[in-house]
Design brief:
The protein is mostly beta strands. The chain has one helix spanning 9-21, and strands at residues 37-52, 58-59, 62-63, 66-79, 88-102, 124-136, 139-146, 149-150, 153-154, 164-172, 178-189, 197-198, 200-201, 204-205, 209-218, 223-232, 236-249, 252-265, 275-287, 290-300, 331-340, 349-361, 370-382, 392-402, 407-420.
Length: 422
């Protein structure tokens, strides 16, 4: 049975205090408190997914038909500054707690809450992530657990609570324009789970996830070249080359994002023989309040895109709310339009519409020409002033149709209210 943890505000406060005590005198040192940032995000999340054309899953032998859930979450984020001296020390604390407002057996595929063995959603869950950090010059070492977002490992924050990883990372910015990264993660807590599990791909667990990379920004920081390499021990290894550029042209701003990803099995190959390459690119054009984006993504090989189970597919240019178009051999294209209503005198209101079409999928049933398409929209508003300033409301509406897999229609309503404490 999946276990859940109740994290009260008192528990979170005690965790923060205990961490501060572990660094004697740090809380009195200049910079540790003065540069600290503490916030509490109140997140209300409603999720409704209808399965169409008889593609709904079964839960304990019963057809689901619909996945629906509603939660209230509290995300406490405290980040200290660094103590004075040649080596500065600090600590980050992330307190996560979510309460189920609605959703029982039908909540199993919402991924809002942990699901018990009987198919019922937990009433509450949460966890505390603590990371110690040290800084010398422009080089920082971080050890512990946190919300990690890297091009080759993107924690997912698409539901009630964000995914977190346990490990160590070093980041160096000693050379102007050049950022270097390296480290290792050993455990993770997925977005709908309170436990800390080994990292895996397709269910095959690896002992450690090792990574290294660098990003170089030049041309007034309008151009970036990134090179990354990652390894989930005894499962897979992966390299990623990326180029981004932004170019003003009169009243327009043109953007480009090009990438190449190469993945193979590694060591004991616990997930079997793996081979996957991704060629992708997107071009955007912004003028006034409008942004139009066209993207193309092509996978080759007999394996889907390799990423740690539960992580975001945001590295891919065609990643969306419901699908990443990352099946074996799949090629997909996207047309997207964003509009900022500030152009009509309504700052804070935005809308996004996109359509993605994928084909040439090598499906598990032997088909070599399976297809899928998706349409997604997001209407968002952020309050600009007053007592509720920065409160945002997002409505996401999605449709997905597939030759092989689940057809669905989905709505999400997400309210975030970030409160600055310090």
């Amino acid at each position: 049975m999946t276990k859940s943890i109740c994290l009260t505000p008192l528990f979170v406060a005690c965790s923060l205090a205990a961490t501060a005590i572990a660094v004697p005198g740090a809380v009195h040192a200049a910079g540790f408190v003065e540069d600290a940032k503490v916030s509490l995000n109140l997140r209300n999340y409603y999720f409704n997914r209808n399965y169409l054309n008889g593609t709904d899953p079964r839960i304990n032998g019963e057809r689901q038909g619909q996945a629906e859930g509603w939660t209230q979450s509290f995300i406490f984020d405290a980040r200290s500054g660094f103590t004075e001296g040649t080596v500065g020390f600090g600590v980050d604390v992330l307190g996560l707690y979510s309460i189920k407002l609605d959703g029982n057996r039908g909540a199993a595929n919402t991924q809002l809450m942990p699901i018990h063995d009987d198919g019922e959603a937990a009433d509450q869950f949460g966890r505390t992530a603590v990371a110690a950090k040290a800084k010398v010059s422009k080089t920082e070492l971080k050890v512990g657990e946190w919300f990690a977002v890297l091009p080759i490992l993107r924690a997912d924050d698409g539901r009630s609570l964000p995914q977190t990883f346990q490990g160590a990372q070093i980041t160096s910015n000693e050379i102007d324009g050049l950022s270097l990264y390296g480290g290792q993660f050993r455990k993770n807590s997925q977005r709908h789970d309170a436990s800390r599990e080994d990292l895996s791909f397709n269910g095959a667990e690896g002992d450690h996830f090792n990574f290294g990379g660098g990003e170089f920004r030049f041309n007034g920081k309008r151009t970036m070249v990134g090179l990354w390499h990652a390894q989930l021990e005894d499962v897979y290894k992966q390299s990623y080359l990326q180029l981004t550029h932004s170019q003003p042209v009169g009243d327009w701003v043109l953007g480009t994002n090009l990438g190449y990803i190469d993945g193979k099995d590694e060591g004991a190959a616990k997930s079997g023989k793996l081979e996957n390459k991704v060629y992708q690119g997107s071009i955007s054009a912004k003028t006034g309040a409008n942004v139009v984006t066209v993207a193309y993504q092509k996978l080759s090989g007999d394996t889907k895109f390799m990423r740690i189970d539960g992580t975001s597919g945001g590295t891919l240019v065609n990643d969306g709310f419901t699908n990443s178009y990352d099946a074996p051999n799949e090629r997909s294209w996207q047309l997207r339009h964003d509009y900022d209503f500030a152009g009509l005198g309504i700052p804070g209101l935005t809308i996004m519409n996109r359509y993605v079409n994928g084909d040439s999928i090598h499906a598990s049933d032997g088909r070599k020409d399976a297809e899928e398409w998706g349409r997604e929209s997001e209407l968002a508003y952020t309050i600009q002033s007053g007592t509720l300033k920065n409160l945002s409301v997002r409505w996401r509406n999605s449709n997905l149709r597939r030759d092989v897999g689940q057809d669905l229609h989905e709505n999400r309503l997400i309210i975030n209210y970030p409160l600055s404490i310090l």
